[in-house]
């Protein structure tokens, strides 16, 4: 390998730290010689995919010798009907990770800036870094609420995109309707606001700001959704964005023609039809959340309020060490340090028996971690 080749690599790429995903179950089984591992690390839906989606996948399997519909016509029709926006206002992709990248490629270049909350989802930063743009991170307040005033102050003439995540990953807080209204009324006209609503369907609070309402009122917003969470199709990869038609048209120019695969498109259409699965998942999530909260309270810990399918709490201990000890017991969670929350753990809401297993293993490893301090 000649030195010159490496010199030709775009320098901004060297600053990209590879994304640290939740550990897969298979890795933990192999690394620790375990047979029974539970994963509460990637905010997935523990109920599994909808039966309707599974059936649709089975029927579509014989057609995978054909390319998928590059325009995702049927899926966009279904989404258009669901959300009351035109199909030309919708773009689908290989998960939200893909749509974040496409948005970044559309709007960013060297000298451009994005404003992001911190801590929040790391792929916003990745998209900016990929395009050699600058990320301006605005800390959440001490109680993990958005600091809208500080976010507005962080906007400059070079700001192209401003991300909001609601419910926010990893903190679980959400944006209220009145707060978003007041904020959007003050965002300068040159800034496109991306509302990442990956956990939208889990929200039960009535004053939650639905991004789509603001899109319909003509604000400069893009609403980002995914089938990976409530719709339980993370492994198939399907995300979509809704925005003003002209903006969607621009983003569409950066898209690979077949960026949403055939099985994903088919399964997503079926999953949208399965209202019972959504309702059951939402109910299961709230029950699991209450179980986790009550269990942690008994152990003397306080789970932060969350509208997502995950929540964080402060352990007051070395989160990386706890994470390792939990792994050894076959329980995968997320440690706070890489998420910008040292001392915290983020736990996805699993089945009730998985929540119970987390609680008992956590109790055990905490006492050994404390003994070893
Ligand atoms: C806030 C947020 N946005 C986007 C994503 C990515 O979703 P997808 O699986 O559609 O790429 C995640 C995944 O964890 C997330 O937490």
TrEMBL record:
Protein species of origin: Tumebacillus lipolyticus
Metabolic or biological pathway: Amino-acid biosynthesis; L-histidine biosynthesis; L-histidine from 5-phospho-alpha-D-ribose 1-diphosphate: step 7/9
Essential cofactor(s): pyridoxal 5'-phosphate
Annotated NCBIfam families: hisC
Entry protein name: Histidinol-phosphate aminotransferase
Entry keyword Lipoprotein: no
Top EC category: transferase
Gene3D superfamilies per UniProt: Aspartate Aminotransferase, domain 1 (3.90.1150.10), Type I PLP-dependent aspartate aminotransferase-like (Major domain) (3.40.640.10)
Subunit structure: Homodimer.
Aminotransferase class I/classII large domain segment(s): 36-360
Keyword Ribosomal protein: no
Reaction(s) catalysed by this chain's protein: L-histidinol phosphate + 2-oxoglutarate = 3-(imidazol-4-yl)-2-oxopropyl phosphate + L-glutamate
HAMAP family hit by this protein: HisC_aminotrans_2 (MF_01023)
Phylogenetic placement of the source organism: Bacteria, Bacillati, Bacillota, Bacilli, Bacillales
Enzyme Commission number(s) of this protein: 2.6.1.9
Sites bearing N6-(pyridoxal phosphate)lysine, chain numbering: 229
GO MF term (any one): histidinol-phosphate transaminase activity
InterPro entries xref list: Aminotransferase_I/II_large (IPR004839), HisP_aminotrans (IPR005861), HistidinolP_aminotransfase (IPR050106), PyrdxlP-dep_Trfase (IPR015424), PyrdxlP-dep_Trfase_major (IPR015421), PyrdxlP-dep_Trfase_small (IPR015422)
Keywords of the record: Amino-acid biosynthesis, Aminotransferase, Histidine biosynthesis, Pyridoxal phosphate, Transferase
């Amino acid at each position: 390998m000649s030195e010159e080749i490496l010199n030709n690599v775009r320098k901004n790429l060297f600053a990209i730290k590879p994304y640290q995903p939740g550990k897969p179950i298979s890795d933990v089984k192999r690394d620790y010689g375990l047979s029974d591992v539970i994963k509460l690390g990637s905010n997935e839906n523990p109920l599994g995919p909808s039966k309707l989606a599974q059936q649709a996948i089975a029927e579509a399997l014989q057609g995978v010798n054909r390319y998928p519909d590059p325009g995702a016509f049927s899926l966009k029709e279904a989404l258009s009907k669901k959300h009351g926006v035109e199909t030309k206002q919708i773009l689908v992709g290989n998960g939200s990770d893909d749509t974040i990248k496409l948005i970044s490629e559309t709007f960013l270049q060297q000298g451009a800036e994005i404003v992001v909350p911190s801590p929040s989802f790391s792929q916003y930063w990745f998209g900016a870094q990929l395009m050699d743009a600058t990320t301006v991170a605005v800390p959440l307040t001490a109680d993990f609420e958005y600091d809208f005033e500080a976010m507005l102050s962080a906007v400059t003439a070079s700001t192209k995109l401003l991300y909001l995540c609601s419910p926010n990953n990893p903190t679980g807080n959400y944006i209220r309707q009145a707060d978003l209204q007041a904020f959007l009324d003050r965002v300068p006209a040159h800034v496109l606001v991306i509302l990442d609503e990956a956990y939208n369907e889990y929200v039960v609070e009535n004053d939650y700001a639905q991004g789509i309402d603001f899109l319909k009122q003509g604000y400069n917003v893009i609403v980002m959704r995914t089938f990976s969470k409530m719709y339980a199709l993370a492994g198939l990869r399907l995300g979509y964005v809704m925005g003003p038609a002209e903006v969607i048209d621009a983003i569409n120019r950066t898209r690979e023609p077949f960026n949403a695969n055939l099985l994903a498109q088919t399964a997503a259409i079926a999953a949208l039809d399965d209202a019972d699965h959504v309702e059951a998942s939402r109910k299961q999530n709230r029950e699991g959340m209450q179980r986790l909260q009550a269990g942690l309270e008994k152990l003397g810990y306080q789970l932060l309020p969350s509208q997502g399918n995950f929540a964080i709490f402060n352990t007051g201990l070395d989160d990386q060490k706890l994470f390792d000890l939990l792994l050894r017991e076959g329980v995968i969670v997320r440690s706070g340090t890489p998420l910008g929350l040292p001392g915290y753990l983020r736990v996805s809401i699993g089945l009730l028996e998985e929540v119970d297993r987390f609680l008992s293993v956590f109790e055990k490893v905490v006492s050994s971690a404390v003994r070893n301090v």
